Batch of 4 targets.
Target 1
Amino acid sequence: MATIMIVDDEPEIVTLLRFVLEKDGWNITEANNGQVALERLGVDPPKPETILPDLIVLDIMMPVMDGYALNQKLQTIPKTKDIPIIVLTAKGQKMRDLFEVAPNVAAYIQKPFDPKTLRELISGILSKKK
């Protein structure tokens, strides 16, 4: 089954996402900010043997390194540049505009979100990736 990384600093959101997505059989990894995500992705520090997720659900507003900075960094690295991203944000259109030119952003979903809609979105993205 596919692996999904959740990058969000709100523990309640991570818990909800983990519950909803594991229920569908997906493997979940998580990070509470962009810098931790880079570590877990084997980017900073470099760990070439790290197994990458099939998709990242990415919050924007986080401490240490926000989602926008993380995505910019991911796009500069050959092994991570094509991982599809679902941007999960409470900021709406303003944040969509920032990501408009990011080729790896597959979808946007606004908080609060409908878990069923998110699951369907993820299924659609992962089925196209195969």
Target 2
Amino acid sequence: MKEIIAFIRPSKMNDTKEILDKLNVSSVTAIPVLGRGHQRGINTVLSGIDVHPDILAKANTHGMKFVPKRMLIITAQNENVDIIVDAIVKSNYTGFIGDGKIFVCPTDDAIRIRTNESGDEAL
């Protein structure tokens, strides 16, 4: 079992949801986040990212620039990880700075609280 953590552009969220739905990925957590990568924050005007002024105000505090992203968290069976990662890459690739990052981490166990199922059955 693995946890897939992906940081993607907000504008690519619908494409990503569609492709994950086609793969029958049933459990996805999506959280709006602010962050930066190697570019240390990019000019949102040049990048074509539509940003609400309140978010920009928060992002530019203390002289550090942050870019709005969506963080997706998916826990998947080992045999499905490569397919899911490839789908996320395919739906988010533009070739420009800010396409995102994906992290794949081992997950020791999962427990569904309602039924007390564990492991793959809990997914």
Target 3
Amino acid sequence: MSEVTENRGHRKERVGVVTSDVQSKTIVVKVERRTTHPLYKKVVKVSKKFTAHDENNEAKIGDTVRIAETRPLSKNKCWRLIEIISRAAE
């Protein structure tokens, strides 16, 4: 039975920093990536915010977390928290 729950197929995963934990069971994660500007060829940082499901309200602002794609849980939420990689310095 555990093999079925562990094998969820190919799901996208992202690593980012929690920017908001105000909502219940929901966190907002900012994911940054580096890309080359199409015209000027300069390397720039591009960031995007994802809304992720945090069942136990474990993650806090500033934590580095790993999130994975899942089925739609609400209008904007289709990611879930996998693990907390590192805690924010307090």
Target 4
Amino acid sequence: MQVLYFAGSIRGGRQDSEIYGKLIAHLRNYGTVLTEHVGDNELLSQEKMMSEQEIFSRDMEWLRCTDVVVAEVSVPSLGVGYEIALAQTLGKKIVCLCRRSVGNLLSAMIAGNPALIIERYDTLDEAKALIDTHFMEKQ
């Protein structure tokens, strides 16, 4: 089983937390998801117990030991962009999921980066099928 890192907007907006939770649950079919908390609606209140330095250190360690990063990039997030850039520097496989309804609003730094796998979807089932195509080949 692989070690996976799911990235999704936290402070940039939590409107997709339910989608994140469902994507994370699906990713568990393929390995251990270190960042399951990203799909938790109560995340912001839980992380109040941690300093920003503790959150940064924890997440950087998780990125170093992960095999694949899956980032839902429909909601703009400085943190997700930072995680993607670091994961690229570390040589990780990175799959970015983005709803088609976002259109051309996806940052050119993500959409134009040839090192990233960008997958667009309309429905949650379509997003899960896209995940399957990237992880079934590894099994």
